[in-house]
Design brief:
- The chain contains 17 helices and 21 strands.
- It has 481 residues and is α/β, with parallel strands linked by helices.
């Protein structure tokens, strides 16, 4: 996957609006757009920010090639003066974002674009495409890993992904969310993440018998010998043949550093417990039992509750496609326009649905932690320039039900700003960490959630509050409209 110019990865109306701005507005008018989402996916209590590195690559490469201009001209809807402008087009604005791997919540700004209106408009579609996809898969992976209770999760979804890009960047996001490896070799090469895999049933079937297939595989990969045990009969054939091979390896003095079986069908709880007993009685208590077969967080959670003797899980279709919630729902909304005096004038979008009314203005975001536990207490959306002293009391209130209030005593909490500057005047000023470092960041972030927020069903929702100043401006705009 060589880097490519994806400037035309956009909806047509972004370009038709750009031409409208070009003709009827000050093309240098500076605006602010926010990216946010309205509800946690999977009925969960949180989401994971992912995709920023690809967003950066996209914005860095934003330009129209000669072939792009020729194609747009062929549509017959763009004037020559506008097309000539596009030949010199580059992103010159500022961009802020929550770093990858961070725990995120609904309605708070994930990305803030501050740029001339034409530049801020054209980037909408691609930013949403990138952030929506990777944040969705990273969140799903975090849920699956949580259900596994410390067991390793391997991402096995490439063949079921909706195309090569979804497979590659989905694998990247899954690693951020907590997977220990991926079967996707290209993702391994591109992102320097561990690649893992064993063999298919076809390997067994291509040999005269199961034992011969196992023996050949063990000779090829003695230090990573995981044998697929369910091709014919798991308990009568697969496990006994695997034990025979392990004995022969041990008798030959071959170190059994990483070895075991994989189950890909049948009653995984029953089979794994029986297989565990057989392996232990044969003298192989360190043998791994790995499982696959249309797993998701709920099935893994159920198998753990049943006492399944599985310690390694391969998760494919349900993870890479986020099968039970296939879209993230991030949106991109205008929040402010710079006035003649240089100040940002807040803008608001109204809706009959309360949750669709936007938060106006040039905003920043603080995360509030309980000082003693280090757990997240709430997030606070403020206007640019608002600051707080951790030694002073802090009053929080629910912006939808403002009579619900919480008063934090001074010294009982800590504050952390979440938005980092990514681009300044069109130049990238941020260096993305490696994927495995982002994974470590994500694990630390998840540790700041209360268990009640991480549970898979009916989790506690973290409050995302507004500062009093922002709340008052929002009310003023609502009343004015």
């Amino acid at each position: 996957m060589d880097r490519q110019n994806i400037t035309l990865l956009t909806d047509l109306y972004e370009l038709t609006m750009m031409q409208g701005y070009f003709r009827h507005k000050d093309r240098n008018e500076t605006v602010i757009f926010d990216v946010f989402y309205r509800a946690n996916p999977f009925g969960g209590g949180y989401a994971i920010m992912a995709g920023l590195e690809q967003l950066i690559e996209y914005v860095k490469g934003l330009h129209f090639d000669r072939e792009d201009i020729e194609y747009l001209a062929s549509l017959g809807i763009f004037g020559e003066d506008f097309l000539d402008y596009l030949t010199r087009f580059r992103f010159s604005g500022d961009l802020y974002a929550i770093p990858e791997g961070t725990v995120i919540f609904p309605r708070e700004p994930l990305v803030k674009v501050v740029a001339p209106i034409m530049e801020a408009q054209i980037v909408e579609t691609a930013i949403l495409n990138i952030i929506n996809h990777q944040s969705l898969i990273a969140t799903k992976a975090a849920r699956v890993c949580y259900a596994a209770r410390g067991d390793g999760i391997m991402e096995f979804g490439l063949r079921r992904a909706q195309g090569p890009d979804s497979g590659v960047y989905g694998a990247r996001a899954a690693m951020i969310g907590g997977c220990i490896g991926t079967s996707n070799v290209l993702a391994g090469q591109l992102f320097d993440v561990p690649v893992k895999g064993t063999h298919a049933h076809s390997w067994i079937m291509s040999f005269p018998d199961e034992y011969t297939a196992f023996k050949a595989y063990s000779e090829l990969y003695p230090s990573a010998c995981i044998l697929l045990a369910d091709t014919y009969d798991t308990l009568k054939s697969g496990v006994p043949n695997a034990i025979r091979v392990f004995r022969e390896m041990r008798d030959a003095g071959i170190p059994l550093s990483f070895y075991g079986i994989r189950l890909d069908s049948g009653d995984l709880a029953y089979l794994s417990k029986k297989a565990r007993k057989m392996l232990d009685e044969a003298g192989f208590p360190a043998a791994v039992i790995s499982a696959s077969n249309d797993l998701d967080e709920f099935l893994i959670d159920s198998l753990k509750a049943q006492g399944a003797a599985i310690t390694s899980w391969g998760v494919g279709t349900h993870l890479i496609t986020a099968k039970d919630n296939p879209s993230f729902g991030g949106v991109y909304k205008l929040a402010a326009i710079k006035g003649d005096g240089g100040e940002f004038l807040p803008k608001i979008k109204l809706s009959e649905n309360t949750e669709k009314i936007t938060n106006p203005g040039n905003k920043i975001l603080y995360r509030i932690y309980e000082k003693d536990s280090g757990k997240i207490k709430a997030d606070l959306i403020c206007l640019e320039g608002e600051t707080y002293l951790e030694t002073e009391p802090l009053l929080l209130f629910d912006p939808l039900e403002p009579w619900k209030k919480t008063r934090l005593a001074g010294g009982s909490y800590t504050l952390r700003p979440l938005l980092s500057k990514i681009f300044q005047n069109g130049t990238c000023c941020y260096t993305s960490p490696k994927v495995m470092e982002i994974r470590r960041i994500c694990q630390r972030e998840l540790d700041t959630l209360w268990e009640e927020t991480r549970r898979l069903v009916n989790p506690h929702q973290v409050y995302v509050d507004l500062s009093r100043k922002l709340y008052d401006i929002k009310l003023q705009l609502l009343e004015r409209v």
